[in-house]
Amino acid sequence: MTSANQIRMPAGGASASPAGPHRAGRDSARRADNRRKWYEIIGLTTPAVLIYVMFVLVPMGFAVYYSLFRWRGVGPPTEFVGLRNYTLAFQDPIFLDALRNNAIIVFGSLLIQGPIALGVALLLNRRFRGRAVFRLLVFVPYVLAEVTVGIMWKLLLTGDGTVDALMRSLGMGGLVQAWLADLDVVIWTLLAILTWKYVGFAIILLLAGLSNVPDELTEAAAIDGASWWQIQRHVTIPLLGPTIRIWMFLSMIGSLQIFDMIWVTSVPAVRSLGASATMATYMVDNGFFARLWGYGNAVAVILFVISFVAALLFQRFLLRRDIEGAITGRAK
Amino acid sequence: MAVNSVLPPSTGRRQVSWGTPLTYALALAIAAVSIAPVIYVVIGGFRTTPQIVADPAGLPDPFVWDNYARVLTQSNFWQQAFNSAVIALGTTLAVVVLGLAAAFVLARYRFRGREGLYTFFTLGLLFPAGAAILPLYLMLRDLNLINSYYAVILPQVAFSLPLTIVILRPFLSAIPRELEDAAAIDGASRLGFLWRVAMPLSRPALVTVGVLAFVASWNSFLLPLLVLSDVNLHTLPLGVQNFSSQYTTDTAGVLAFTSLAMLPALLFFTLAEKQIVGGLQGAVKG
């Protein structure tokens, strides 16, 4: 609002003063139009800005404030404890377990879903009859609510349930576990369910990215005598880079916040021992249900900072160029 | 990105061929793994609990309609489906209207601070909704909004706005300047241009944005779990969870309830598959 206006203002005034009444009329009409333009800008953006500020930005500010108090949620917070809630969280072995579980889910999702999705997408990157049906079916787990998926797998995985029976009939009875009750097994079971739910999303995303790789490039490589694998390795996969990185970004952010599926699938007792807790379930268990509001908000801030820093680092080092076009849209 | 996704996909130019056996074997295996558990749940709803306990992986023998009938007549299924629909439709409508208005300004007006405002909105993409849930609950409590549809709709709209604006803005920017000039010559104001030209032209993007907001709202769980304690306001995801923890021994009933809860999402997805996948592809194309 400062420099450019100050330069422009005298120029406009100078051109208006020596001009006749005709010029001045056009000038005031323009000024009226300019005013109307600003009314429109303010009128059209204010509702979105207000609701966005009020429900996205303000709550995070309050979380920081509440996190400095010991507070049971009744009346205004008065017992200021500084950063004690934060040090308490990092001393709680259950919270450290939750952090470890989030790390397992973040890296497990990337390392398992990535290669599977890439392999499948490369092999299916050709037009074939029935591709539309295939795309529809692969996408089903992604569209279902996490809650529904969680309940479904919980039923399938009950002791002596469907999965166990199926494994026994395939001669793998020795591998049967207490899938959701064994403290050492449960997080891997949950990772497997998450893989089932989200690998289709990765496949669809990569297939979409592959459809943008020009046929001319792969055809030219083939004419030059490159094998199928060489073409994938040196032409297709590098061109797929932006898509892969955006998928990694979305997967990472989703994994850090994961709540629904974990909440409905895992037994509360197992969760309270830390075996299947994540940062989000730990936050809701302690903050909302145990009414430790100050402490819960401190966990919320930790969760927020970890996600925010991870997102920024990822953008800075991996997304740099992609992000402009893809996640934030074109700036111009 | 914008112009590309407006145009219909360029299929059909080339003869669609049959794939190799390997392609089909792989495609079939992946599709089977994706869909088998879902089919199992739907079929399981047609069995009785003793049948399921005796042979977990068997087929219905005889077919029983009772579970589905029971869920549809005796549970809160319809009430919960109605609540889910009201919240999802309200969220979608508000996201599309507010998002379009803001994106239109950010795309078609030149003013100081425009890029700053845009960056301000895109910042929201980095704010995880899950992390804000506790202070959000406290705020809604202070506003006396707990146990109302608004308690779910308003935060959902707020958290959907950044992505909506990011998707809509390039669409609106891509509308040629000449169209705006022509509309002005015909006497249309800028708002008239928005209503009569920009909105119809960006319909594909509006549909994509609307579908994404609808599906996210339909499936959401954490926010309703905290702010809707009144059973009469429960949405379907809450209903599925409650039903399954209330009737732990009624496996067949839980299977029936779960498959009925999946049904609307699956139907909706089949109808809107193009928009959902198209929206994701748009995001990837950049």
> What name does CATH use for the topology of the largest domain in chain A?
MetI-like fold
Q: Categorize the overall geometry of chain A.
A: flat
Percent range for helical residues of chain A?
Answer: over 70%
The CATH first-level class of one domain in chain B comes to: Mainly Alpha
CATH H level, superfamily name of the largest domain in chain A: MetI-like
Largest sheet of chain B: none
H-E order of chain A: HHEEHHHHHHHHHHHH
Helix and strand content put the structural class of chain A at mainly alpha
Strand share of the residues of chain A?
A: under 5%
Q: How many DSSP helices of chain A?
A: 14
- Find the count of extended strands of chain B (DSSP E, 2+ residues): 0
Main location (chain A): membrane
Keywords (chain A): Cell membrane, Membrane, Transmembrane, Transmembrane helix, Transport
Protein name (chain A): sn-glycerol-3-phosphate transport system permeas E protein UgpA
GO cellular component, one term (chain A): plasma membrane
